[in-house]
Amino acid sequence: MPGYATRQLVCRIGGHDYRLRALLDRQQFADPDGAAERAGISSAQWCLFGQPWPAGRMLAEAMDAIDIAGKRILEVGCGLGLSSLVLQRRGAEVVASDHHPLAGSFLAHNAALNGLAALAYRDLPWAVPDTTLGRFDLIIGSDVLYERGHAALLAQLIARHAKPSAEVVIADPGRGNSAAFARTMAAQGYAWQEQRRRLDEGDIAPFRGRLLHFSREAAGAVALAS
């Protein structure tokens, strides 16, 4: 036994059913070798990667419709990997990333559940530069601004890994840190727009969900990477 319980659920995105193995609930915790503790993941945070969050579904729906032709794509904080699975099914060149010690194995399992080839996966702590990862045309993430310091960390990661002409799409449930992130992205030369979207069936306008779309042309690039 792995020390935690799981469940299987189905998310329907763009006419396709995606099967996902998720943690049973938010009470699950197992860190027998201390890998999560060494990664800076507390017992309260441990279960978060393994839940199907509304912002994750919102991002997956956006990825079902976005133009992927010729683009190298990076998902940050992939969790269960739903958006990366949608992109993989569409034939995109996608790299999923997270820093939870179980994210890679859950992603591989979920790809197999859906009859997809194994996805490229990287363990990617945001504060540690990865000189081997390269640069991307599109960087995506869902609910990745849930702590105040995440806006600066994520913007620095994007500076290291975005191509001079690039897009960034972030699905945010309205936690209050998106304005600071948008200011930092503007300093990197990105124009941006916000689209309000329903997070769940109970949402009424103005919707809580925010789909943030940043874009930059090569001439506006600002080198902030270290």
TrEMBL record:
It comes from the Bacteria. Its EC number is 2.1.1.60. The keyword Cytoplasm applies. One of its GO terms (molecular function) is calmodulin-lysine N-methyltransferase activity. GO terms for cellular component: cytoplasm. One of its GO terms (biological process) is methylation. It is found in: Cytoplasm. The keyword rRNA processing does not apply. Transmembrane segments: none annotated. Keywords: Cytoplasm, Methyltransferase, Transferase. Pfam families: Methyltransf_16 (PF10294). Its main location: cytoplasm. SUPFAM superfamilies: S-adenosyl-L-methionine-dependent methyltransferases. This is Calmodulin-lysine N-methyltransferase. It comes from Vulcaniibacterium tengchongense. The lineage of its organism: Bacteria, Pseudomonadati, Pseudomonadota, Gammaproteobacteria, Lysobacterales.
